[in-house]
């Protein structure tokens, strides 16, 4: 069993950031390995992804709580994979996004790298630049 957590600072206001994140059609734009995602009603999401070198197509779920700017998601897989994300205000026009992942399958370096890449792609999508996770600095 393993838990992972990363935070990214965005130069995007929290309401805009949360609205973008809560729209499942944006998931492939920043989520590493995800080829497509579409809502199939309620909290159900049909996803196509490449996970650990294997193509996965199936149903997942995503719960959105706009009041607390929180998302929770998961998939019925033997790995017990699920996660949550929180968007918080940082001043008037910026935000932070904290993502936590849980899996029964511990692959620290691979999961850590994927999570860092996901947040870098999110920053690029919303702010137009990326963060070098190794150095913690922004690049254009």
From TrEMBL:
It comes from the Bacteria. CDD domains: SRPBCC. Signal peptide: none annotated. Transmembrane segments: none annotated. InterPro entries: Polyketide_cyclase/dehydratase (IPR019587), START-like_dom_sf (IPR023393). This is SRPBCC family protein. It comes from Actinomycetospora aurantiaca.
């Amino acid at each position: 069993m393993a838990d992972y957590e990363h935070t990214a600072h965005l130069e995007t206001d929290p309401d805009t950031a949360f609205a973008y994140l809560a729209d499942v059609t944006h998931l492939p734009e920043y989520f590493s390995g995800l080829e497509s995602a579409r809502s199939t009603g309620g909290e159900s999401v049909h996803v196509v992804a490449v996970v650990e070198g294997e193509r996965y197509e199936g149903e997942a779920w995503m719960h959105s709580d706009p009041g607390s700017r929180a998302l929770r998601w998961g998939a019925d897989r033997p790995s017990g994979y699920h996660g949550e994300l929180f968007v918080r205000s940082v001043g008037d026009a910026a935000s932070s996004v904290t993502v936590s992942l849980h899996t029964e399958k511990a692959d620290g370096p691979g999961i850590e790298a994927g999570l860092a890449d996901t947040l870098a792609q999110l920053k690029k999508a919303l702010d137009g630049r990326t963060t070098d996770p190794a150095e913690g600095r922004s690049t254009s």
